[in-house]
């Protein structure tokens, strides 16, 4: 896959299950090894320590109604099946957009986001869940109440309401901004990342089992960010002449595609930058990058097929992108990986 990939295709936005999968992944990214967005309403988690989590995403069209008994029963049966099939379970969770998942008298879930483990639920909500568990065990002989550990059960409200994605995805937007802040990614990339991740987390009938490892997510995120470099920042930093701006924007991608396939070239540039940074470690990093790019671009100029001095700015942008690519990757990894 090209380092600077052009995303294609159009999605109609997130459904609730896909949104829940991405939200949960970002909110717990340092603890998660892999997430599986698979089956109807099913989101499965593999944590770094090998333990498992099983989520049931239950959307209600009318957020002010309680979850129907059949929906709650279906979610609990799915979690029961997970309990029977697996032993190393860390959590069981039902996630919904309902303001009143169990009772209109319980106002605990009126906020846009709220998570309650079983023992912290109101008594009548606990009773409703316990009653369903008992009914399931009576009607389905393969289930035993002892198999379902309610100490591992949580109910979470994640808001999903409104007539457009801007309204429905407000909570997702908040968690995305938290992540890109931690990863030191410019907020200007929000819409592009949202669009890209919508493809990554999309589950459809053609591919019902969608597995996303942390490495796949990191690679995908890096590709998304680097596919749309901030050319305005480059133009400011390197004092590009006004008459050359349009030429650069129209032509740099052709040379960039060739350069990024030349791994020896990338290795040379990165190695040269490491040596340069070590030699100039007392200087400000931003100044180091500018000085290095100005010097290195003259060295690699002909190696990437350029022979016109008007193309020197294209050589500069290629060197600049190779250098900042590694910084982006380091920042994304730091925001995603638990170093403990």
From TrEMBL:
InterPro entries: Cap4-like_endonuclease_dom (IPR025382). It holds the Pfam family Cap4_nuclease. GO terms for molecular function: nuclease activity. It comes from the Bacteria. Residues 11-149 form the CD-NTase associated protein 4-like DNA endonuclease domain. This is CD-NTase associated protein 4-like DNA endonuclease domain-containing protein.
């Amino acid at each position: 896959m090209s380092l600077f990939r052009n995303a294609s295709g159009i999605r109609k936005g997130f459904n609730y299950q896909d949104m829940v999968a991405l939200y949960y992944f970002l909110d717990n990214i340092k603890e998660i090894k892999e997430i599986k967005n698979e089956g109807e309403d099913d989101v499965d988690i593999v944590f770094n320590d090998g333990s498992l989590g099983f989520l049931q995403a239950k959307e209600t069209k009318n957020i002010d109604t309680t979850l129907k008994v059949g929906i709650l029963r279906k979610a609990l049966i799915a979690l029961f099946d997970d309990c029977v099939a697996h032993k190393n379970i860390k959590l069981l969770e039902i996630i919904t957009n309902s303001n009143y998942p169990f009772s209109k008298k319980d106002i605990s879930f009126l906020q846009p986001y709220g998570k309650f483990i079983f023992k912290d639920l109101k008594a009548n909500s606990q009773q409703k869940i316990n009653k369903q568990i008992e009914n399931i065990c009576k009607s389905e002989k393969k289930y035993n109440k002892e198999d379902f550990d309610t100490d591992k059960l949580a109910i979470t409200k994640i808001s999903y309401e409104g007539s457009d994605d801007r309204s429905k995805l407000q909570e997702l937007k908040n968690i995305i901004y938290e992540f890109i802040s931690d990863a030191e990614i410019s907020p200007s990339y929000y819409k592009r990342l949202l669009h890209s991740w919508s493809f990554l987390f999309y589950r459809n009938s053609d591919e019902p089992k969608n597995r996303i490892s942390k490495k796949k997510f990191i690679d995908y995120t890096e590709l998304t960010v680097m596919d749309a470099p901030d050319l305005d920042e480059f133009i400011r930093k390197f004092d590009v002449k006004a008459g050359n701006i349009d030429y650069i924007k129209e032509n740099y991608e052709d040379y960039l595609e060739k350069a990024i396939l030349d791994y020896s070239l990338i290795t040379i540039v990165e190695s040269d930058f490491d040596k340069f940074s070590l030699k100039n470690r007392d200087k400000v990093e931003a100044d180091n990058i500018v000085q290095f790019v100005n010097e290195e671009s003259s060295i690699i100029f002909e190696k990437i097929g350029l022979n016109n001095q008007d193309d020197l700015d294209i050589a500069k942008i290629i060197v600049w992108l190779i250098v900042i690519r590694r910084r982006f990757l380091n920042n994304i990894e730091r925001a995603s990986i638990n170093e403990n």
